[in-house]
Design a protein that fits this description.
Layout lengths: L3 E7 L9 E6 L8 E10 L2 H9 L13 E2 L3 E9 L11 E5 L13 E5 L3 E3 L6 H5 L2 H14 L7 E5 L4 H13 L2 E6 L2 H9 L4 E4 L5 H9 L4 E6 L4 H9 E9 L9 H7 L3 E4 L4 H4 L3 H19 L7 E5 L4 H9 L6 E5 L1
Parallel strand pairs: 9-10, 9-12, 10-11, 12-13, 13-14, 15-16
Antiparallel strand pairs: 1-2, 1-4, 3-5, 3-7, 3-16, 5-6, 6-8
């Protein structure tokens, strides 16, 4: 059995050109809680290109040697387990969110070592590629819609970026609740995808006035709940798109807009944030177990035929750099997956 594996690595922060395919030592089960996964596919996520550019680590005090392997989620088959691992056995098909930072290698590799408590069974009804499209976006959208948005059946909801990785998943969650959903998209192709996922209205923000279209549709001064999956400048505009006494949920690190406090207070807005990175660095394992529980619920929803990921493109190691560029530029429709 080979003691090496192929992996996509980076030796320094930078553009897509810093990603290199290399032979690396294959990880081994050393601790009783370890699970060794033969990775079959991994999601290509915004956090991946952000970590590539910044070289950010989750634990600044961690000592690191060698290159970084990106990829914060993955799907594969269990090849070996430590003697304290209970619910996962060799041969199981699993998925997880873990790693992708200096000091904790990610899933842009043929093998990944994960703590046994942080892996769970992948959905039975879909293949590795379609499963790999879901962990990060499924979890983030779940936290936003079900745990922060407090959406009720019949609510008028606005999803910014409805054809993106998060947006097209959130729209399906909202449809399951019975919400009435509008979304912003940049072109007709993205509008078609968002509508096919359950959106009632697609607003072409480049040619249409979002505020006017939203008021005409909802009959209110905005939407009851706004999910901002775009962030940055869009975060400021989202204050205007939220109806009085409404809720605004942001998932992208963004500067607070000038006058935002006064506007939020005047409109009696509830504003909340979702960042799934906290459990990855917290020493409180209950946060990670919370995420595993949500992944189990997502798997059930998939197997019941109530959730699917739209795959825009499937790439090899050599194509990941271009996938990063397209994702950062907003050219991606749904999800991109690395097939290993």
């Amino acid at each position: 059995m080979s003691e090496t594996m192929r992996a996509l690595v980076m030796y320094e922060p930078g553009g897509p050109e810093v990603l290199k395919v290399r032979d690396m030592p294959k990880p081994k089960v050393l601790n009783s809680s370890d699970v060794l996964v033969r990775v079959r596919a991994a999601g290509i996520n915004p956090a991946d290109w952000q970590n590539r550019k910044s070289g950010q680590r989750h634990d600044p005090d961690a000592e690191t040697e060698g290159p970084t392997i990106l990829g914060i989620d993955g799907v594969g088959v269990v090849e070996d387990v430590g003697n304290a691992v209970e619910r996962i056995t060799i041969g199981d098909e699993v998925w997880y969110i873990d790693g992708g930072y200096p000091g904790n290698p990610g899933s842009y590799a043929e093998y990944k070592l994960v703590h046994g408590a942080y892996v769970s069974p992948k959905p039975k009804s879909i293949d590795y590629v379609h499963a790999a499209a879901l962990p990060v976006v499924g979890l983030t959208a779940w936290e936003a819609v079900f745990n922060k948005g407090n959406v009720k059946s019949g609510d008028h909801v606005l999803v910014h970026g409805g054809a993106g990785g998060l947006g097209h998943i959130a729209i399906q969650y909202l449809s399951a609740i019975g919400a009435r959903t509008a979304t912003t998209v940049s072109n007709e192709v993205k509008a078609e995808l968002a509508l096919s996922m359950g959106a009632e209205l697609a607003i072409l923000y480049r040619t249409q006035d979002v505020k006017v279209e939203l008021r005409s549709w909802s009959g209110k001064d905005g939407a009851d709940v706004v999910f901002d999956f775009v962030g940055h400048d869009n975060f400021a505009q989202s204050f205007e798109h939220t109806a009085p006494y409404g809720r605004l949920v942001n998932t992208v690190v963004s500067d607070w807009p000038s006058g935002g406090n006064a506007l939020a207070e005047w409109k009696n807005l509830d504003i909340s944030f979702v960042n799934i990175g906290l459990p990855q660095v917290s020493r409180d394992g209950s946060h990670r177990l919370r995420q595993v529980g949500i992944l189990d619920s997502i798997a059930d929803m998939v197997d019941q035929g109530k959730l699917r990921a739209h795959i825009h493109r499937v790439v090899s190691f050599e194509e990941v750099g271009e996938a990063h560029r397209a994702l950062e530029a907003g050219e991606t429709l749904g999800r991109v997956v690395l097939n290993i």
